[in-house]
Amino acid sequence: EIGPDPTMAMASRIPASYQSFPLTLLSWNISNAQPSITAPNFIDRSKESPRLISEECLHPAKPSPDIISLQECPYPSFGQDEFGPSGYVSMGTQQSHCGYVDLLVRKELTRRNNNNNAQPIIIPKQYNLPSVAATIELPNKTKIAVSSSHLAPFKDGAYERLMQCTTMMNFLNQEADNCVLLGDFNMRVAEDKGIENTCGGGWIDAWKETGSNSDVKFTWDSYINRYHDGGFK
Question: What is d(CA 57, CA 198) in angstroms, rounded to the nearest whole number?
Answer without folding.
Answer: 31
